[in-house]
């Protein structure tokens, strides 16, 4: 029987494609109105994608996040996410 206490959930950063423990990544979620926000709890409803803190700028400027969340990210929304990253540091 598998020991559940040793299981560490793994997720992939959409920018660098490295697999890391879920707790080391930041989850972004597309909410019902199509905008994207940081999911600090990791449990918000909506389509999610993960970014490393090191890949934050690359992920927001490139198209990987847009593709993973299946939405367009407006300039206002992008600036909001950059401000949220500053609070996380």
Looking at CATH, which topology would you report?
A: Hypothetical Cytosolic Protein, Chain: A
Largest sheet: spatial strand order: 4-3-5
Number of domains: 1
Looking at CATH, the homologous superfamily is YlxR-like
Mean pLDDT: 91
CATH architecture grouping: 2-Layer Sandwich
Oligomer: single chain
DSSP strand count: 5
Helix content: 25-40%
> Under the CATH scheme, which class?
Alpha Beta
Describe the structure.
This protein is α+β, with helices and mostly antiparallel strands. The protein is built from three helices and five strands. It has helices spanning 56-61, 64-69, 75-88, and strands at residues 10-12, 19-21, 26-30, 36-39, 47-51. It has a three-stranded antiparallel β-sheet with strand order 4-3-5. It has a two-stranded antiparallel sheet with strand order 1-2. Strand 3 and strand 4 form a beta hairpin. The model has no long low-confidence stretch (mean pLDDT 91).
Considering the chains and any ligands shown, give keywords for the structure.
single chain, 89 residues, alpha+beta, Hypothetical Cytosolic Protein, Chain: A, three-stranded antiparallel β-sheet, two-stranded antiparallel sheet, 3 helices, 5 strands, 22% strand
């Amino acid at each position: 029987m598998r020991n559940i206490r040793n299981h560490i959930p793994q997720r992939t950063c959409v920018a660098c494609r490295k697999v890391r423990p879920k707790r080391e990544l930041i989850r972004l979620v597309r909410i019902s109105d199509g905008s994207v926000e940081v999911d600090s709890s990791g449990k918000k409803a909506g389509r999610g994608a993960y970014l490393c803190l090191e890949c934050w700028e690359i992920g927001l400027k490139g198209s990987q996040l847009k593709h993973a969340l299946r939405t367009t990210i407006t300039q206002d929304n992008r600036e909001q996410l950059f401000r949220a990253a500053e609070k996380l540091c």
